[in-house]
Amino acid sequence: MSTVMLAISEKMAQWLSTTPSWLQNAPEGIQNIFYQLYQTWIMNDNWHYFTDGLKVTILATLGALVIGVVIGVLIAVIRSAHDSSRKKPPVALRILNALSKLYLTVVRGTPMIVQLLIMCFVVMVPRGQEELLRCATITFGLNSGAYVAEIIRSGIQSIDQGQMEAGRSLGFNYGQTMRYIIIPQAIKNILPALGNELITLLKETSVATVIGLNDLTKGAQIIVSTNYTTLVSYISLAAIYLVLVLALTKLLSIFERRMKNSDR
Length: 264
What we know:
Layout: H1 3-16, H2 21-24, H3 28-42, H4 47-84, H5 91-109, H6 112-123, H7 129-157, H8 161-169, H9 174-204, H10 216-227, H11 230-263
Helix pairs in contact: 4-5, 4-7, 4-9, 4-10, 5-7, 6-7, 7-9, 8-9, 9-11, 10-11
């Protein structure tokens, strides 16, 4: 038996001597699972890795969501204005539309992890956890913005053209009509798709471990590298993500129900 395995067995024997008799008499497999739970969550206050990582994951997700929605709305409005123009669009609008298409093509055509590596090791070159978090948040936001833009654009296209004409007849310009009439109606239509994008964004933040960000996934990896509790650590990680997704799904369901009630 290797030196590492002997050390683990000795520590486990010492720990078992402090546990209730029913656990001491339990099968070896049950004892191993409980010992891994102890190592993963209690020993050396390892639960801090999960709680600290959870804070980083939530901050990165919320920051990326704000960036993604802002970029998505701007690009969706630009592309919708260009496509709905009955005459030849102005030069400025055509340039903005071309830049928007280029952005969408590049972002949706390259993997998230590659974008993260380029942003953090070529463009920004962060030092320290705060700069890593900023870099990851910007990257996730830029990536999410491309998908949010297409979601919002599809919602805008689902609104009857008469809504735009009605707004213009009331004296609103294009921007005011989009802000007060079109986009509020489009949001109701695309809320489920936006919710899915938020859930996807939350899970995709786990790739930030490749740049050394101490997020939720990195916390589990640190525990595994220290205690070799692969089974319990990664199952605990999956359970935390699952709880977060279920909570988001429930909140989105409540929000969608209230919006439907307001229509009635």
